[in-house]
Amino acid sequence: MTFVIHKDPSPQVVKEAVCRNGCGATVGYVPNDIQSDYDSDYLGDKDYYKYVRCCVCSKQIRVKG
Length: 65
Prior knowledge:
This protein is mainly beta.
């Protein structure tokens, strides 16, 4: 059975990203915050990417998975 020792995430797993397409805030995130989506071109080819959602302006911040 798992249990919580510390509620705050360990600094070893917290990463930072800058919201370059929106407000410019520096956002901290953990692996559970990462989501996936894709862009498609006119031929239907898909380019997959990972992102986190900015907690200030709600825009996507692309990150390396």
